[in-house]
From TrEMBL:
CDD domains: biotinidase_like
Domain spans labelled CN hydrolase: 13-284
Keywords (A to Z) from UniProt: Glycoprotein, Hydrolase, Signal
Family statement: Belongs to the carbon-nitrogen hydrolase superfamily. BTD/VNN family.
Gene name of the record: LOC109312027
Protein name stated in the entry: Pantetheinase-like
Pfam families: CN_hydrolase, Vanin_C
InterPro entries: Biotinidase-like_euk (IPR012101), Biotinidase/VNN (IPR040154), C-N_Hydrolase (IPR003010), C-N_Hydrolase_sf (IPR036526), Vanin_C (IPR043957)
Entry superkingdom: Eukaryota
Organism: Crocodylus porosus
């Protein structure tokens, strides 16, 4: 079929009160069943609305902040999908698997693909020199059950976040599966920041849709969930189904159904702790669509022009631990260039009116980010500073009043992996309000519907990354 209906569910996870002390397997299952009760309602609702597939969040069944011992009662042995297993009809085939049984039955009884995030355990012994001291590998794992309840995909998260000390790093896996409504790939949360497996799935294996269970804490001004995940879908030109966990204490909200041309449906809620089901229709094979966006040469425009108005007004300030070079946009309109190392960023803009109590800056960063993960960035950004004090530029701010009637942002990137972001006041996306030109300009010709928080070209220069922790020598 040419199109299909996708659902993502932002789940307000019910957390265990005690994650420092081990609980019994029965108590662990009781908590997981409480979460699965809620997920089951969403699965039924999605199926009733015609969805072919539903994605649920990372950590959505057992929560977070465990030790290796305290996560253990929540884990199940998840077999390789090649075994052809329907846990709903043959639950004990590989030992106790109540969580897989329940997810499989949800998929089967509602005739819908179900994507969930659970924990896998694999026993090992001293014949394996890498076997952990406690005799088992523990993996953060995405599973997919097809509409008959068969396990069709198992993915072990490769890029663990800094807090996930209770899981092991697996070898990299590139997990795909085929359906009548397209070819799917699976990865999770921090994976989106790295080359493997994310870029391999989208570029080399050419999946149509990425399934993305996540537990993403929002980090403005560049890394809120809806902002970065929709930008990645546009930059990589794939469908992207992102289901975030909802938890205000760790700033988690922001789920969406994104296409190569921009957001199709999204949700960002800081008002309540409620869950939220999103449903939308997508192209099954977006690269065959007449509207599929052309490949972009991200540096073509920026390297072809002379620097706009050189200035000695540059200053530095920090975005999420990275020292950017900035210049203030003092006039209602202008053309400016700001450079850091090899990266020069060009901006042409016209504001609707200059608000005296708001400061906007153009910024550039070319360097290795080293906090909560190590990855090489090249970023050009136009953003609103938190206050009129230039030292606050780059600090999180969620509202703005300044409208831009037009802008054009470009940069002399050394990488072809650039993710275009436009984030508006109230942490809202701007579907259809900007364009990516094939020469690498991110432009808005008619302005945006709300005031601007951030416009960015978020570049990842993967070749400059240090080795992955799994590959690094001890
Ligand atoms: N569960 C995860 O793997 C989350 C990882 C991504 C978190 C992103 S990366 C930069 C920001 N820091 C955060 O705390 N959240 C954002």
């Amino acid at each position: 079929s040419d199109s299909y209906i996708a659902a993502v569910y932002e789940h307000s996870v019910i957390l265990s009160e005690e994650t420092n002390l081990p609980v019994s397997p029965e108590d662990a299952l009781e908590l997981m069943n409480k979460n699965m009760d809620v997920l089951e309602i969403a699965v039924k609702a999605a199926a009733q609305q015609g969805a072919h597939i539903i994605v649920t969040p990372e950590d959505g069944i057992y929560g977070w902040v465990f030790t290796r011992e305290t996560i253990y009662p929540y884990l199940e042995d998840v077999p390789d999908p090649q075994v052809n297993w329907i846990p709903c009809t043959d639950p004990e085939r590989f030992g106790p698997a109540p969580v897989q049984k329940r997810l499989s039955c949800m998929a089967r009884s509602n005739s819908i693909y179900v994507v969930a995030n659970i924990g896998d355990k694999k026993p090992c012994n001293s014949s394996d020199p890498k076997c952990p001291e406690d005799g088992r590998y523990q993996y953060n794992t995405d599973v997919v059950f097809d509409s008959e309840g068969k396990l069709v995909a198992r993915y072990h998260k490769y890029n663990l976040f800094i807090t996930e000390t209770y899981f092991n790093y697996p070898e990299p896996e590139y997990v795909t599966f085929n359906t009548s409504f397209g070819n799917f790939g699976v990865f999770t949360c921090a994976d989106i920041l790295f080359h493997d497996p994310a870029v391999v799935l989208a570029s080399k294996l050419q999946v149509d849709t990425v399934l993305f269970p996540t537990a993403w804490g929002n980090t403005l001004p560049l890394l809120s969930a809806i902002q970065f995940h929709s930008a990645w879908a546009m930059g990589m030109r794939v469908n992207f189904l992102s289901a975030n966990t909802r938890n205000s204490s760790v700033d988690m909200t922001g789920s969406g159904i994104y296409g190569p041309n921009g957001p199709i449906a999204y949700h960002y809620n800081t008002e309540t702790e409620n869950g939220q089901l999103l449903i939308a229709q997508l192209n099954s094979r977006p690269h065959l669509s007449p509207t599929y966006p052309p490949a972009v040469n991200w540096s073509s425009y920026a390297t072809s022009i002379k620097h706009f108005s050189p200035t000695d007004q540059d200053f530095t300030a920090v975005i999420y631990y990275d020292l950017f070079t900035f210049m203030e946009l003092t006039k209602i309109e202008g053309n400016h260039t700001v450079c850091q190392k090899d990266l020069c960023c060009h901006l042409s803009y016209r504001m609707a009116e200059k608000q005296e109590d708001e400061v906007y800056v153009l910024g550039a960063f070319d360097g290795l980010h080293i906090v909560e993960g190590e990855y090489y960035l090249q970023i050009c950004t136009l953003l609103k500073c938190k206050s009129t004090d230039l030292k606050t530029c780059g600090q999180p701010v969620a509202t703005a009043q300044t409208r831009f009637e037009a802008f054009s942002l470009s940069g002399t990137f050394d990488t072809s992996y650039v993710f275009p972001e436009v984030l508006l006041s109230g942490v809202q996306l701007a579907p259809g309000e900007f364009q990516i030109l094939s020469d690498g300009r991110l432009i808005s010709q008619n302005g945006t519907s709300k005031p601007v928080l951030t416009v960015a070209l978020f570049g990842r220069w993967y070749e400059k990354d240090p080795p992955h922790p799994q590959q690094a020598s001890p």
